[in-house]
């Protein structure tokens, strides 16, 4: 798997994400600077990391979504490339129009950093196929603007098309209000594009993909990517 | 714009005592210019000169085989083996946080992070020790909310995990909260950067954000006791820009790797003044500055304003001239200002030019070397009154009351607002005795804790000082780490009062004795005095930030017990 | 020329910040506050001296960057 | 009655948001943007029907809560 991590000024989970991708793929991810106009050739996966691109000033992800490299990312996505956006990366994908909906300030108005439980809602995607029976996972969230907003029609369509990748749930797998850390509609934590090859999610699977950090529940996501890429090749 | 006439009363407005002003007149054998007066006031205030505390700080143990650099630089440096070093310091931002909690606390975090990365270290952990007034006090809630939000907003955006700290509530902080910020970073032991300039005719370069009129006079404010009108005066507070700081970090680390840096210093309080004087003083060189080249955010800034501005996210560097193009390209890449604003000169002189005029022409060494130093009178703290008898109560009720009390309840509501996992190396998260952060790419880890119990320090400063160090030591040990060294942030009231000075002296004696006994030298620190409102001092609060090393994560001791484990109590 | 761009949430989009302010005003004893909505105002100083051209330019800025038109409306006002 | 409160940073106070927007507009090819300042606008729906009383009440809200008067100015506008 050849992957690249896009680095914006203010990205701060770029290294973590590259480590997780690199560990799964057995080859390092390349780091691509936001001012570049093109992606390296032959990529399988483009990943947009968490952080505070451009300080998250104006709106989270808004300025990054309009930087030169994003035109190349949009082209890559339109050609069917696999694109993963985590946290700020999710916000950027939404601002770039690659995923529907909007992300707004957490309902508590506070930044929230803690572990949450997620249910893996679908295995039908290059990001989730390796979760297998492991349908409730524990990974951290760390964000201020993670409330996923979708109107009724959009939420219904995402549901009908099986494009909700993850939901916030309690340890038993129930999508309760208490399990929702930010006020997202329908406890939605991650969504897929209509071709299922773009995923945006607020939680950080890359932060729990190493036993020394207290868990590996995030690791299957990176394994899924490697398997999906290998299948095509 | 006409400058005010310089005389004793203007000097007094600058916080200079009559004998201090006389000292300046004797030194110069003339009246200083307005800009020069500003420079003296910045250099000679408590905050920069440590004039009340120096004598006592010198008594602290600062040496040990593990110490690469002790107090005196931007931060302390400790050897952690394998050619690596940990760089750390703690610093207060008390007064600014009381006036504008969010921005005050945020810029406090920004300042301490810069202290760490100017030395060439990438910050890997932050902590914060907070003291607020009683919960019921009308200001407490908004102060707590603002301070916690400010710390989070800065650290989270910058991308450093905030892994520990303290929160306490006590009426003694009603009019004067404490915000002490700690940061630690990692560097290669042979690639530490210091502030001493070297070489004559070397370019002095301004890096980072533009200069505005932020906090002009702020350093003076931070050292003056608050009066009734503190809320009315409302000096311009600085606004933090963590996004710029993050870029400044990346640009500085790239710059250092490029070999362009001779010396570097961050611009903190009275930025341009203190940083330029420090680089010259340490390198036994003079500095000439041409303020026309300083990148300004506002129009028509005077020399006085530029020399005293506290605008954040700025650095001053002495550059290897042949590397100018490389260095400039790095700052262009990160969209930051890069301007040559002067050069080093052979003679002992601080020359400041602006608009074709000489605005200041001072003997440079005297600015720090001749700063007043006081041996303030102090009295030993008298023995505390015995406590009232402890009421008899049901142990279960007592436990519930204790666990629900503001000072003992869970702090999760604080640390959950901080990204304590960014960088993906946090092995032990907040909520334990000390946090543990892995040294990236190795099996080593560092443990961090911040501790002090101010009521002990009030009752018996010497024992309270010892206790703070001992608690930090225990917290580190409990994770499996070997304690290495400490940084201290000494928060006290008005040192001109012998009882307060007595608390200060006592705490230092206790800290010194404990650090000596436990082989944990003090390698950096900060003093914040005049924490009083209407003559009411805070509790003596010498925060101790301590760092320990786990040579392998296999040595880590988890806190969560397993069913069936035996419970032992050790010690006495 | 100077322009102001007002960016506000579309009706129907939940505004947690506005809601929090309404609540806080209530606790501070301000009665009769029926609803609160929070938006942004962005003031832009332009070199352009022709009002019509400046206004059109600012509208393009709003469309392209300043507002997220999925959830926000914007309004441009020329100040002079 | 409806009121709008404009909250803007005092002159001289650093506005990182405005600066980032200015920079972004430049990269998007919008020339001639000399400065950008970002502020807040808070729209309040009040039960009060007397314009003068409503305005005075909103000014008090701004003073006490809506603006951080250490670094911000505010202006109240009645909409009707
Ligand atoms: N301001 C803060 N920021 C981050 N973590 C904090 C803060 N205050 C307390 N903590 C964390 O909460 C836990 C409990 O704090 P404290 O009661 O002071 O612990 P102890 O008494 O064991 O030193 C510790 O892990 C500490 O690091």
Automatic annotation (TrEMBL), chain A:
Pathway: Purine metabolism; IMP biosynthesis via de novo pathway; 5-amino-1-(5-phospho-D-ribosyl)imidazole from N(2)-formyl-N(1)-(5-phospho-D-ribosyl)glycinamide: step 1/2. Signal peptide: none annotated. The keyword Heme does not apply. InterPro entries: Class_I_gatase-like, PRibForGlyAmidine_synth_PurQ. GO terms for molecular function: ATP binding; glutaminase activity; phosphoribosylformylglycinamidine synthase activity. This is Phosphoribosylformylglycinamidine synthase subunit PurQ. GO terms for cellular component: cytoplasm. Keywords: ATP-binding, Cytoplasm, Glutamine amidotransferase, Hydrolase, Ligase, Nucleotide-binding, Purine biosynthesis. Part of the FGAM synthase complex composed of 1 PurL, 1 PurQ and 2 PurS subunits. It comes from Thermohalobaculum xanthum. One of its GO terms (biological process) is 'de novo' IMP biosynthetic process. It comes from the Bacteria. Its main location: cytoplasm. Pfam families: GATase_5. Its EC number is 6.3.5.3, 3.5.1.2. The active site is at 87 (nucleophile), 204, 206. It catalyses: N(2)-formyl-N(1)-(5-phospho-beta-D-ribosyl)glycinamide + L-glutamine + ATP + H2O = 2-formamido-N(1)-(5-O-phospho-beta-D-ribosyl)acetamidine + L-glutamate + ADP + phosphate + H(+); L-glutamine + H2O = L-glutamate + NH4(+).
TrEMBL record, chains C, D:
Pathway: Purine metabolism; IMP biosynthesis via de novo pathway; 5-amino-1-(5-phospho-D-ribosyl)imidazole from N(2)-formyl-N(1)-(5-phospho-D-ribosyl)glycinamide: step 1/2. It comes from the Bacteria. One of its GO terms (cellular component) is cytoplasm. The keyword Zinc-finger does not apply. It catalyses: N(2)-formyl-N(1)-(5-phospho-beta-D-ribosyl)glycinamide + L-glutamine + ATP + H2O = 2-formamido-N(1)-(5-O-phospho-beta-D-ribosyl)acetamidine + L-glutamate + ADP + phosphate + H(+). GO terms for molecular function: ATP binding; phosphoribosylformylglycinamidine synthase activity. Gene3D superfamilies: Phosphoribosylformylglycinamidine synthase subunit PurS (3.30.1280.10). One of its GO terms (biological process) is 'de novo' IMP biosynthetic process. Its EC number is 6.3.5.3. NCBIfam families: phosphoribosylformylglycinamidine synthase subunit PurS, PRK05974.1. Part of the phosphoribosylformylglycinamidine synthase complex involved in the purines biosynthetic pathway. Catalyzes the ATP-dependent conversion of formylglycinamide ribonucleotide (FGAR) and glutamine to yield formylglycinamidine ribonucleotide (FGAM) and glutamate. The FGAM synthase complex is composed of three subunits. PurQ produces an ammonia molecule by converting glutamine to glutamate. PurL transfers the ammonia molecule to FGAR to form FGAM in an ATP-dependent manner. Belongs to the PurS family. This is Phosphoribosylformylglycinamidine synthase subunit PurS. It comes from Thermohalobaculum xanthum.
